[in-house]
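To illustrate the input format used throughout this study, we show a single complete record. The first block contains the structure-token representation of the backbone; no residue identities are included at this stage. The design step must infer an amino acid for every position from geometry alone.
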């Protein structure tokens, strides 16, 4: 009898607080006068990941393949078995670095936030063999590079080797491992086989990986060592950083206020200008290269979001697939503004009393929806809610509390638009 009474009470309460859920229609659209504001869509600071809503900036997975240059007899660099093992480990260590953002050393006693870096690289499979896309090219004319060469196929910035051997260049970043010319190394004026690289956005050349990995070196105390793969992966990530829109931080303005200029010291030497704390930023020349600032993350995300002249074509378009566990939740009474564009993987849920203002392009995948709970509000303030994959997202759910009369709201202003919806796709631009 007691249990029946409890059930009856719960039924009465649920009936009194009944929620009606339906898809939005034209009659749900409100217009509102909001003063125009400076457009922020093209400013990289608008793309800095929000630590409280990290799934609003999902990880970008970048396609890569690798090319190892050899002499015609297969020497001069990694053997095929050794090279495959090295590249697989290089990719693994690269992703460990992307997932291990570190606090900035400079400026000293700084309070620069540490935000997860939403980037990983993915080694592709060869379209014909199905094996890892690691290619070996026996080519005496292109097996080596010469740091002293100002032009020609063996110079730093020449792309002959890339044009000849790149694979899937429209959607994959091609990375070439090339060693120093051994004849040049033997010259006392050459300066030794130093680790270096260059990025062309869609292709990268890395120099001296084999030499640095296999040559035994000696510390000041006489103990032998070779560079491990984790150490070498920093060069790969540095050059990938260039491909993703980042510049060196030393000696000029790189577009970020949280990356102070520095002398580019490799290590603390005890002599000026390297006699104190040195940079640990990924885009500087230093031993560590593990730190990436919020501004740098924003610049990379902006590069990935742009349709043209960026790195977008090299990323796996996971934003075109619906991931139900990647819902972005705007929490109760939260007031959130998205000034930058977003490629979301799942739903948006705006809870009671919360407001989400969209001022740029936000893409939702097929089957995704926006859920506006009672008292929640979605404002399209010059922004666009759509699907950028040639599909349609499911629509906008309006929740209404029949007892309190609270209802989810949609407001369009400053030419905000809702496009590509399955349900009530007649929702149009409102002046």
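Output of the design step:
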């Amino acid at each position: 009898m007691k249990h029946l009474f409890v059930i009856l009470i719960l039924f009465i309460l649920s009936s009194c607080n009944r929620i009606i859920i339906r898809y939005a229609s034209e009659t749900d659209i409100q217009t509102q006068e909001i003063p125009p504001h400076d457009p922020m869509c093209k400013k990289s600071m608008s793309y800095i990941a929000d630590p409280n809503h990290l799934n609003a900036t999902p990880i970008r997975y970048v396609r890569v393949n690798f090319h190892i240059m050899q002499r015609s007899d297969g020497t001069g660099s990694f053997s095929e078995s050794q090279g495959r093992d090295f590249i697989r480990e290089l990719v693994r260590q690269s992703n460990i670095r992307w997932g291990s953002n570190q606090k900035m050393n400079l400026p000293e006693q700084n309070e620069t936030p540490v935000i997860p870096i939403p980037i990983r690289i993915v080694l592709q499979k060869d379209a014909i063999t199905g094996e890892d896309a690691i290619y070996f090219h026996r080519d005496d004319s292109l097996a080596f590079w010469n740091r002293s060469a100002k032009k020609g196929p063996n110079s730093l910035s020449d792309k002959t080797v890339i044009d000849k051997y790149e694979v899937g260049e429209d959607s994959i970043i091609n990375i070439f491992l090339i060693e120093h010319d051994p004849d040049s190394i033997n010259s006392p004026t050459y300066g030794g086989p130093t680790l270096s690289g260059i990025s062309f956005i869609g292709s990268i050349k890395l120099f001296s990986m084999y030499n640095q990995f296999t040559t035994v070196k000696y510390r000041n105390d006489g103990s032998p060592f070779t560079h491990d793969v984790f150490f070498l992966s920093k060069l790969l990530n540095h050059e990938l950083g260039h491909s993703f829109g980042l510049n060196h931080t030393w000696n000029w303005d790189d577009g970020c206020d949280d990356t102070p200029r520095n002398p580019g010291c490799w290590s603390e030497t005890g002599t000026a200008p390297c006699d104190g704390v040195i940079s640990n930023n990924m885009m500087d020349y230093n031993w560590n290269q593990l730190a990436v600032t919020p501004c740098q993350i924003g610049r990379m995300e902006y590069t990935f979001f742009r349709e043209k002249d960026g790195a977008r074509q090299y990323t796996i378009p996971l934003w075109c697939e619906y991931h139900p566990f990647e819902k972005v939740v705007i929490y109760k009474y939260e007031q959130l503004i998205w000034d930058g564009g977003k490629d979301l993987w799942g739903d948006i849920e705006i809870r009671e009393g919360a407001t989400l203002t969209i001022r740029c392009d936000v893409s939702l995948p097929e089957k995704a929806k926006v859920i506006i709970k009672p008292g929640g509000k979605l404002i399209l303030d010059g922004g666009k809610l759509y699907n950028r994959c040639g599909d349609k997202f499911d629509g906008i759910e309006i929740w209404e509390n029949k007892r309190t009369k609270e209802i989810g709201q949609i407001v369009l202003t400053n030419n905000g638009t809702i496009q590509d919806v399955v349900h009530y796709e007649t929702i149009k631009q409102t002046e």
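Structural context for interpreting the output: Residues 2-15, 425-431 have pLDDT under 50 and may be disordered. The first helix runs from residue 2 to 16.
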